[in-house]
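Question:
Write out your own:
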Amino acid sequence: MRTVHCVTVTHGPSTTVAAMLESLSRTTRGLGREVSVTVVVQPDASGATASSELAPFAEWVDVVEPGANLGFGPANNLGASRSDSDAIAFLNPDLELVEGWLEPLVSALAENDRVAIAAPPLLTSEGHLEEAGASVDSDGLTIGIGGGRSDVSYADAMRDRDVTYASAACWLVRRSAFEAVDGFDPAFVPAYYEDVDLALRLADAGQRCRLVTDRPVVHHHLGPDAGRAEIAERSRRLFIDRWGSRLSQV
């Protein structure tokens, strides 16, 4: 698995994407593998985008401006289509990548062809564990394992294992598996639940999601506001309609 294509999606101006790209450049330089990057730049309701924040990276970042907000899933699908790499790294623009984050994820895919998704633990800006994989309950509510709403201890959470899913804030995905299930489902536009839906569709295809704990990354995640909560609730209802009969077994 020699080639990795990194995809980031922005929505409106971003105060974090430049720092994320700097961390991506710093931590992938000199790895001896081909790493390419696409950023899909979507406008917010006012039409503003993150284009100015990306100007310093123009020489090595493929910037795609679709001219509209496609939603999280379709925008990531578009970014993934810009390469034929062996693996795709989906990276939120609010990540801070650390030295050595990529290679353990590549190894997880290379060592077992039934692993379609490899994901690291996510830390908060303060250094606390946000999640080490995640679970979903019978109401479709997602809980980050080992995080503030979880009753799993840090020691139990921080071990390599298969998980139901992990947040797509940081995923390394085998391209062949991703394309076999047609990527993220646009039914969840604009956002939320497309990652757990994809993980469950891959599981139905005999594929697995693997938590790899060697190198946690930092997720400078903003808390929910009323608008995002409404969008999340709409996606949760769609997710329940699709997976409700299955959730008691997850």
Summary: The chain has a mean pLDDT of 95.
